[in-house]
Amino acid sequence: MLLNCYQQEFIEAGCDEAGRGCLAGPVFAAAVILPPDFIAGELNDSKQLNHQQRKRLRIIIEKEAIAWAVAEVDNIEIDQINILNASFLAMHRAIEKLLVKPQYLSIDGNRFKKYPDIPHACIVKGDGKYLNIAAASILAKTHRDEFMERISDEYPHYQWHQNKGYPTVVHRSAALEHGLSPYHRKTFTVSPPQLNLFSEIEG
């Protein structure tokens, strides 16, 4: 059973990102402050849930959270500052957008660039341990998926509506055949599919 948050003393926002391992599109991040009595039976790490479960949970989270925000860093910025720094920047932007200022941050993962004047804890696999991080993972994932589905209409051969920009065989094959789109991260390597350097992830 997931705990509500990492600590009880301060108003805490859970933070997570989506899209770090993609070849195309932005990295998205979310920050969520949940009420202490928040209950959502299915809520877990977004990777453990199916598309319909995530959609249902997003509605609940956005309705019942004390505050939530989603932000992104696009592929051009990712190429300029690298994906790790872009992930931190996306989280910072989400935190900045919160209508209620948190006093503490719980971050999914083992690294984070300190946000000014707010202490934080990095929690490995935190989206499977704390509800506020799990909620952030749901919002980051669903908002990013929607973005990739929209831009898929512009470049249908990459099939982003299915792979969401992850390095699937179909995506890599299309990138090698048609070249890179304006949404691709130019600093990421598109390997020939037969080399099988990436796992096929459907997102």
From TrEMBL:
<dbReference type="InterPro" id="IPR036397">
    <property type="entry name" value="RNaseH_sf"/>
</dbReference>
<keyword id="KW-0378">Hydrolase</keyword>
<dbReference type="Pfam" id="PF01351">
    <property type="entry name" value="RNase_HII"/>
</dbReference>
<dbReference type="GO" id="GO:0003723">
    <property type="term" value="F:RNA binding"/>
</dbReference>
<dbReference type="InterPro" id="IPR024567">
    <property type="entry name" value="RNase_HII/HIII_dom"/>
</dbReference>
<dbReference type="InterPro" id="IPR022898">
    <property type="entry name" value="RNase_HII"/>
</dbReference>
<keyword id="KW-0479">Metal-binding</keyword>
<dbReference type="GO" id="GO:0006298">
    <property type="term" value="P:mismatch repair"/>
</dbReference>
<dbReference type="InterPro" id="IPR001352">
    <property type="entry name" value="RNase_HII/HIII"/>
</dbReference>
<feature type="domain" description="RNase H type-2">
    <location>
        <begin position="10"/>
        <end position="200"/>
    </location>
</feature>
<keyword id="KW-0464">Manganese</keyword>
<protein>
    <recommendedName>
        <fullName>Ribonuclease HII</fullName>
        <ecNumber>3.1.26.4</ecNumber>
    </recommendedName>
</protein>
<dbReference type="InterPro" id="IPR012337">
    <property type="entry name" value="RNaseH-like_sf"/>
</dbReference>
<dbReference type="GO" id="GO:0043137">
    <property type="term" value="P:DNA replication, removal of RNA primer"/>
</dbReference>
<feature type="binding site">
    <location>
        <position position="17"/>
    </location>
    <ligand>
        <name>a divalent metal cation</name>
    </ligand>
</feature>
<dbReference type="GO" id="GO:0005737">
    <property type="term" value="C:cytoplasm"/>
</dbReference>
<feature type="binding site">
    <location>
        <position position="108"/>
    </location>
    <ligand>
        <name>a divalent metal cation</name>
    </ligand>
</feature>
<keyword id="KW-0255">Endonuclease</keyword>
<dbReference type="GO" id="GO:0004523">
    <property type="term" value="F:RNA-DNA hybrid ribonuclease activity"/>
</dbReference>
<comment type="function">
    <text>Endonuclease that specifically degrades the RNA of RNA-DNA hybrids.</text>
</comment>
<dbReference type="GO" id="GO:0032299">
    <property type="term" value="C:ribonuclease H2 complex"/>
</dbReference>
<dbReference type="GO" id="GO:0030145">
    <property type="term" value="F:manganese ion binding"/>
</dbReference>
<keyword id="KW-0540">Nuclease</keyword>
<comment type="similarity">
    <text>Belongs to the RNase HII family.</text>
</comment>
<keyword id="KW-0963">Cytoplasm</keyword>
<feature type="binding site">
    <location>
        <position position="16"/>
    </location>
    <ligand>
        <name>a divalent metal cation</name>
    </ligand>
</feature>
